[in-house]
Every structure is written in C-alpha cells, then in structure tokens.
Amino acid sequence: MADLTDYAKNLLGRALCARGPALPSQVFLGLGTGGSDPSGLTGEPVGNGYARQKVTFSGTGAQQNTDAIRFTFTAAVGTLTHVGLFDAASGGNPLTWSALASAAAVTGAGTVTINAAGLVLTPN
What we know:
Blueprint: E1 3-4, H1 6-16, E2 27-32, E3 34-36, E4 40-42, E5 53-55, E6 57-58, E7 63-65, E8 69-73, E9 78-86, E10 94-106, E11 110-114, E12 120-121
C-alpha cells in the first residue's frame, strides 16, 4: 500500500511540524472497487456480512500485518479490487489505499483472506 489519502498527508504534515494531531490508536482494513488520494477506498460493500477488519502491524521500516485478515461474506458482493486503511471500524477517516495484487470475485458466501505479512506499507 503506497498511496496516502489527502487526509493522511495532512495528518503527517501536522505531526512533522509538531502540531500534535491525534494519531490513530487502531486501524481497520476495508475492501472495495477503487480508490483515490482525496477519498481513499471507494466502493466498499454494504451488508452481506461485510465489515472492516482490525489490523495490527509490525516492523521498523516497512510495516506488515502480523496476523491473517479475514473478510467473511454471507452472499455475493461482486469483484473487489482495492484495499484501504481507516481509523475507525465504520465511517472514520481514510488513511491509505491500494489495488489488490489480484481481484477477489465474491460470487456467494465465503471468505477473502490476506495472509500474515501479505499487507505491506512501505515508507517512500
């Protein structure tokens, strides 16, 4: 995940200038159909068991998810092509977004899994 949202860019800018913004204490991963710097992840599913998942990261440079991330669906939601981090389980502020390495077609009940260390945030 390399693309910061405009919100995250502004948050980091204030932090670097010692303006003390409230940094997120938890982050949640979502799935969707697109993304952009102004809005972050777009096209998040609604219903059918979908919910953002809490993510814990580790690392000293590049950050990697420590555990597998599992999204469980009770019905079809279509093809999901992007991921995004948020500072809340619902609503909240978008932090970063990126295309998935391969699209996930959710055509019925099932699970989409991102393996441990499969989600990497690399500082540029």
